[in-house]
Backbone:
């Protein structure tokens, strides 16, 4: 497959939610992702994340087992990546790490070359390129690889799972990009999963091993900080553990373990007690043939979630954590062909956890950008019909794609939310669209206030005596004070308005405050 340019296919996906019986969905924030696919190299098998060109943005470093190369895809900080640039390494690289191996401030890369029984070391130049690869020999098909300072000498060391040799090896770093010969720290059947974490809380990184041989087990090696390790025991897991994640899943202060077990289409969770003991195990069925797992809080609810890459199902699974849920809520998201490994990072620098998986069969990487949920109602902003106000039900009575809680006309369709007088009521349902004080004409019509200054129930615009008591009669003459100077013309005579109105003889024709008409004399 010729790779001449990046392939970028952006898809906004609806979630597929699987809920284990007894789980509650109420108040659970469901993460959502925008997915892009990028050409990477032939047969991508593993990926690391680092800033390879020192521009402040995270880049992708991909191990391609079908073309014996490492591809660099430079990131732009917005979630997009450049076309891949390939660098040769050994035969069939299956694992990869990125770290500063020679203490020059630049990120270097190591691959585990399965068919060569070697490790390829690429020293970075800080511009996204490398010096020619050097090699370290590890007999027995190196298939798992990690990098960290395991002895406290400030130099990066390498931890390797030799799958067919049934050993876990450490190559102690010299601080210049070279390493001592491998030293065996564990003999176990098929060590394909490795993790580093402080299991017993002593401030030193310990080793977790997933064994895919006949035992299907996890082994804990406690680091003595003197280049020796103590075997703290083995614990059973589901069939064929391919990867392991470590975190405190239940917030009890002790690290727990989660294994992606491809043979059982499941994850196995081992609950830790903080001493290196994992006596309780829970299994969760997920997608087909999970090969990778990582722990992160994807929905920002304060609980650790899990993500797996399911090679047999061509998808990824998000298992939502929580004290009550315990990963019972599962979202499945499509990837491309045979996702095998991945990494978690913030690729678009928005503060949310994103992730990437390598699609071995399609020669691509799939980048999943976590979409924000500003109002915290469990619906990502890109899908939310009211992203500024929490409305988990997404109620939209007028079907105009604007949620009722945000809609300035919830009963009348007005998708553009036009509101000419800016009174908060949309023009579609505003009977006075140019009068910011009224939404209905009322008794006085648009543009006039319906004020009733004297509180007599009649608005000033229709009141014969606005602002005055219509019934006050200070001189007790039977004519209200406000009508003393008001008379009306009724036929050929002029009489006080009150008496005529009261008698129903005629209607008021002259406003308050006008001089009364003179009576005509009859001779």
Residues:
């Amino acid at each position: 497959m010729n790779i001449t340019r990046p392939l970028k296919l952006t898809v906004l996906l609806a979630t597929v939610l699987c809920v284990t019986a007894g789980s509650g969905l109420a108040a659970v924030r469901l993460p959502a992702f925008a997915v892009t696919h990028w050409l990477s190299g032939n047969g991508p098998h593993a990926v690391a994340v680092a800033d390879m060109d020192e521009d402040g943005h995270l880049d992708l470093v991909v191990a391609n087992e079908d073309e014996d190369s490492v591809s660099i895809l430079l990131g732009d900080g917005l979630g997009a990546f450049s076309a891949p640039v390939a660098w040769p390494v050994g035969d069939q690289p299956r694992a990869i790490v990125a770290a500063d191996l020679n203490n020059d401030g630049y990120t270097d890369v190591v691959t585990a070359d399965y068919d060569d029984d070697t490790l390829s070391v690429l020293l970075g130049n800080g511009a996204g390129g490398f010096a020619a690869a050097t090699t370290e020999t590890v007999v027995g098909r190196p298939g798992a690889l990690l990098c960290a300072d395991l002895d406290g000498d400030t130099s990066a060391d390498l931890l390797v799972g030799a799958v067919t040799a049934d050993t876990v090896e450490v190559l102690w770093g010299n601080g210049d990009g070279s390493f001592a010969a491998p030293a065996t720290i564990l003999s176990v059947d098929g060590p394909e999963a490795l993790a580093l974490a402080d299991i017993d809380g002593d401030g030193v990184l310990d080793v977790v091993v997933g064994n895919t041989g006949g035992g299907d087990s996890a082994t804990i090696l406690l680091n003595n900080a003197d280049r020796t390790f103590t075997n703290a025991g083995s614990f059973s897991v589901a069939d064929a553990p391919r990867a392991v994640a470590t975190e405190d899943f239940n917030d009890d202060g002790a690290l727990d373990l989660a294994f992606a077990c491809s043979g059982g289409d499941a994850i196995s969770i081992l609950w830790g007690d903080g001493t290196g003991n994992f006596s309780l195990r829970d299994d969760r069925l997920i997608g087909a043939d999970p090969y990778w797992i990582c722990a992160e809080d994807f929905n920002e609810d304060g609980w650790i979630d899990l993500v797996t890459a399911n090679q047999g199902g061509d998808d990824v699974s998000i298992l939502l954590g929580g004290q009550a849920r315990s990963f019972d809520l599962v979202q499945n998201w499509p990837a491309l062909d045979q996702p095998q490994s991945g990494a978690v990072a913030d690729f678009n620098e928005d503060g949310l956890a994103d992730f990437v998986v390598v699609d071995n069969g399609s020669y691509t990487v799939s980048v999943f950008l976590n979409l924000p949920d500003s109002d915290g109602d469990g619906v990502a902003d890109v899908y939310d019909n009211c992203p500024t106000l929490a409305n988990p039900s997404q109620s939209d009575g007028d079907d105009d794609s604007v949620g009722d809680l945000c809609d300035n006309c919830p009963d009348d369709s007005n998708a553009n939310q036009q509101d000419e007088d800016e009174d908060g009521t949309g023009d579609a349902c505003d009977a006075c669209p140019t009068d910011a004080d009224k939404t209905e004409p009322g008794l006085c019509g648009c543009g006039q206030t319906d004020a009733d200054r004297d509180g007599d129930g009649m608005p000033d615009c229709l009141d014969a005596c606005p602002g005055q008591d219509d019934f006050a009669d200070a001189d007790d003459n039977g004519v209200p004070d406000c009508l003393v100077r008001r008379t009306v013309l009724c036929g050929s005579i002029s009489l006080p308005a009150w008496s005529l109105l009261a008698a129903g003889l005629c209607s008021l024709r002259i406003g308050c405050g006008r001089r009364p008409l003179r009576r005509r004399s009859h001779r």
